[in-house]
Write a structure and sequence with these properties.
The protein is built from 16 helices and 23 strands. The chain is of the alpha/beta class and about 500 residues long. It has two domains: about 270 residues, Aldehyde Dehydrogenase, Chain A, domain 1 (3-Layer(aba) Sandwich); about 190 residues, Aldehyde Dehydrogenase, Chain A, domain 2 (3-Layer(aba) Sandwich), CATH 3.40.309. The strands form six sheets. Strands 15-16-17-14-13-19-20 form a seven-stranded mixed sheet, with helices on both faces. β2 and β3 form a beta hairpin. The longest helix has 20 residues. It binds nicotinamide-adenine-dinucleotide. Nicotinamide-adenine-dinucleotide binds next to α8. GO terms for molecular function: methylmalonate-semialdehyde dehydrogenase (acylating, NAD) activity. InterPro entries: Ald_DH/histidinol_DH, Ald_DH_C, Ald_DH_CS_CYS, Ald_DH_N, Aldehyde_DH_dom, MeMal-semiAld_DH.
Length: about 500
């Protein structure tokens, strides 16, 4: 049984008799270990370590910081498999998918390696006679990242490479459901030469989050998780004077126009709906089929779903793994009966899916639910509107582009969306009018590259800056503008007038 604790000041720290939470093997349902849950004293110790490390790290040259990042990048690269195995064992996703999240996270490290260029300011000579102005961006101090269970490596890597490259010190509070990846990353930072205290990990729950949100020495908080907690973190953090970006939940729609290639659409819908068992904030959970393509498209989706292999994440034959916990699986599964009650047709029932090495999903130990397809889901029903966050794909039939667009724009969330069509004019109108932060045109999971920024609209993001990319650099720095004049003979004496250019 493993026991996971904190990483503070460059070393593992255990509080001994602290509160703990269980870590499961989702494929078997067995308890695999425990994770400590930080109390206020451990949070304060982590903040103190990060605060003590800040002055020297802030003053480390850009080139020195970049070199640490380059070394971290190389170490992470050579530990990809180990990291993916840790993720798969606690989250349940298949190994290849875990490798994918490590790769996407590494792209942010690679982006942050360019920090000397990213922090370049502007310079204007002679803004007034013999007066120059220049802008600089400076780090904030101690910053924190609070992350969800579904990407235990990638989502933290959306945050800490940029924050650390900018000269801040960082405290990661990962999900208590799959905490091990955070400690491997902490030890690789140390091996890369990052000074102790610049990167810290606090395992924990609401107690740790609340203390981080109110601690006077924490300057900014990045959060990714469900919408109710994102809203709470944003409101509480900003009430305590902090800069906060809080990314929330999602309900992503794919609009399928009648001219689309339905084989391409079916491949995309199944990949984006059931990859990582639907536990992705960019998963497609609703297909809006514009008449008359619904019947043909559903047939193609069902044919593909029935060929999927569901099994343990460490079995190379598995394409989809279990859900993260039994509680979450039960919540997701409850939407199957709800959907039928609301008038949908259950065309593939994931409770009966055969599991590799076991029986039907519902009868096999572990947190299993196979890919599920609900057709004729009524627009506006709970199954259509609520975030299910599991392997449940809903098909809503609509009569037109406009009806589909309206359904997307009246939804609570605005994280990701996609249109599938061969009509460039329709695609252009869609990307122009849709009220969603990340849009795919014939691309079902339009996750921006590291050098663009990731973030949704409406209840999918509280705050105004998205993560990583240039907006990430902006979030983790403060701007300063210097206006300078060196003494010269034109010095004109006292003037109480408002400074004007001369
Ligand atoms: P969650 O909101 O339950 O937990 C996220 C973090 O908040 C965890 O670290 C958790 O320990 C902490 N937390 C939980 N309850 C808390 C409370 N009451 N007070 C303070 N902190 C609390 O989310 P999750 O179940 O881990 O992750 C899934 C959710 O994350 C989904 O809603 C998904 O859409 C969302 N998500 C969003 C994005 C995005 O980019 N918008 C990305 C990934 C996941």
């Amino acid at each position: 049984m493993k026991h996971i604790a904190h990483w503070i000041g460059g070393a593992p720290v255990s509080a001994g008799d602290s509160r703990t939470s269980q870590i499961f093997d989702p494929a078997t349902g067995q308890v695999a270990g425990t994770v400590e849950l930080a109390e206020v004293a451990q949070v304060d110790a982590a903040v103190a370590a990060a605060k003590a490390a800040y002055p020297a790290w802030r003053d480390a040259s850009l080139v020195k910081r970049a070199r640490v990042l380059f070394r971290f990048r190389e170490l992470m690269d050579s530990h990809r498999d180990e990291l993916a195995a840790l993720i798969s064992a606690e989250h349940g996703k298949v190994h290849s998918d875990a490798l994918g999240e490590v790769a996407r996270g590494l792209e942010v490290v690679e982006f942050a390696c360019g920090i000397p260029h990213l922090l370049k300011g502007g310079f204007s000579e002679n803004v007034s006679t013999r007066v120059d102005s220049y802008s600089i961006r400076q780090p904030l101090g101690v910053v924190a990242g609070i992350t969800p269970f579904n990407f235990p490596a990638m989502v933290p890597m959306w945050m800490f490479p940029v924050a650390i490259a900018c000269g801040n010190t960082f405290i990661l509070k990962p999900s208590e459901k799959d905490p091990s990846a955070s400690l491997l990353m902490a030890s690789l930072w140390k091996e890369a030469g990052l000074p102790d205290g610049v990167f810290n990990v606090l395992q924990g729950d609401k107690v740790a989050v609340d203390r981080l949100l109110e601690h006077p020495d924490v300057r900014a908080v990045s959060f990714v998780g469900s919408t109710p907690i994102a809203r709470y973190v944003y409101e509480t953090g900003t009430a305590h004077g902090k800069r906060v970006q809080a990314l929330g939940g999602a309900k992503n729609h794919m609009l399928v126009l009648p001219d689309a290639d339905l084989d391409l659409v079916a491949d995309a819908a199944v990949s984006a709906g059931f990859g990582s068992a639907g536990e992705r904030c960019m998963a497609i959970s609703v297909v809006l089929a514009v008449d008359p393509v619904g019947d043909e498209l559903v047939d193609k989706i069902v044919a593909r779903v029935e060929r999927l292999t569901v099994g343990p994440g460490d079995d190379a034959a598995s394409e989809m793994g279990p859900l993260v916990t039994g509680e979450h699986r039960d919540k997701v599964a409850s939407y199957l009966d709800l959907g039928v009650e609301e008038g949908a047709k259950l065309v593939v029932d994931g409770r009966t899916t055969p599991i590799l090495g076991g029986g039907a999903a519902a009868d096999t130990p572990g947190f299993w639910l196979g890919p599920t397809v609900l057709d004729h889901v009524p627009a506006g029903s709970r199954v259509h509107r609520e975030e299910i966050f599991g392997p449940v794909l809903s098909v809503v039939r609509v009569s037109s582009f406009d009806e589909g667009l309206e359904l997307i724009n009246t939804g609570e969330y605005g994280n990701g969306t996609a249109i599938f069509t061969n009509d460039g004019g329709a695609a252009r109108r869609f990307q122009n009018e849709v009220e969603v932060g990340m849009v795919g045109v014939n691309v079902p999971i339009p996750v921006p590259m590291a050098f663009y920024s990731f973030g949704g609209w409406k209840a999918s993001l509280f705050g105004d800056t998205h993560v990583h990319g240039v907006e990430g650099v902006h979030f983790y720095t403060r701007g300063k503008v210097v206006t300078s004049r060196w003494l010269d003979p034109s010095h004109g004496g006292v003037s109480l007038g408002f400074p004007e250019n001369k």
